């Protein structure tokens, strides 16, 4: 009975000590890490050394992200798991491609971002609609102003043309009056002079 209690306790103590040592080693080896993923099994046992004869120190869930270390022996790859432990796992369970769980998590994050963008667009839609209405109203006002200015310019041109025509008509009338007046004066003078000559002849 005592043996059944002591064995698990000793195993837990060794595991805790190994974990503390592995975390410290991890902090000193960040420069050599490369990202990889555990394949889509339910979970994978990890060992303290490069072989199944080394003690099992825990397990890694499927799809977990790990950091590749330099060690690679006997079909085992040295990694730092998602708990910060420096352990060994069978190479066949290490992949450069994200597992389904990791992909699902990324898709979930993308879905949240897309939903947030949609919510922002829906929130901003009334403001954009109001802005569109304001711009349309301003456009109509500008068109009306342009039409008024074009009409005013046309009216001014018409007034100038009418004034020019009236001035020309007045000049023609004045010139005609002067011409007729001169003609009448010439006739009167001719008659007057002819009569005077006649009177002089009688005398």
UniProtKB/TrEMBL annotation:
Transmembrane segments: 171-193
Protein's UniProt keywords contain Magnesium: no
Membrane topology, from the record: Single-pass membrane protein
GO CC field: membrane
Residue ranges that the Swiss-Prot or TrEMBL entry lists as coiled coil: 104-166
Alphabetically ordered keywords of this record: Coiled coil, Cytoplasm, DNA replication, DNA replication inhibitor, Membrane, Metal-binding, Signal, Transmembrane, Transmembrane helix, Zinc
Keyword Transmembrane helix recorded: yes
Residue span(s) of domain SH3b: 33-98
Main localization category: membrane
Signal peptide segment: 1-20
Superkingdom of the organism of origin: Bacteria
Cellular compartments annotated: Membrane
Pfam families: SH3_3, YabA
NCBIfam families (alphabetical): SH3_and_anchor
Protein's UniProt name: TIGR04211 family SH3 domain-containing protein
Source species: Pseudoalteromonas phenolica
């Amino acid at each position: 009975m005592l043996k059944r209690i002591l064995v698990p306790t000793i195993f837990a103590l060794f595991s805790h000590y190994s974990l503390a040592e592995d975390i410290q080693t991890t902090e000193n080896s960040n420069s050599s890490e490369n990202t990889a993923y555990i394949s889509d099994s339910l979970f994978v046992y990890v060992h303290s050394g490069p072989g199944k004869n080394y003690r099992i120190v825990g397990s890694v869930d499927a799809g977990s992200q790990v950091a590749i270390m330099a060690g690679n022996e006997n079909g085992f790859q040295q990694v730092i798991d998602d708990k910060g432990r420096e352990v060994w796992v069978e190479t066949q369970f290490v992949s450069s491609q994200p597992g389904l769980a990791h992909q699902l998590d990324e898709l979930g994050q993308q879905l949240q971002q897309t939903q947030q963008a949609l919510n922002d667009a829906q929130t901003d839609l009334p403001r954009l609609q109001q802005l569109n209405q304001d711009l349309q109203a301003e456009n109509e006002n500008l068109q009306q102003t342009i039409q008024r200015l074009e009409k005013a310019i046309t009216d001014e041109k018409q007034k100038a043309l009418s004034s020019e025509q009236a001035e020309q008509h007045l000049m023609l009338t004045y010139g005609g009056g002067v011409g007729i007046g001169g003609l009448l004066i010439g006739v009167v003078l001719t008659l007057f002079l002819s009569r005077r000559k006649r009177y002089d002849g009688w005398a």
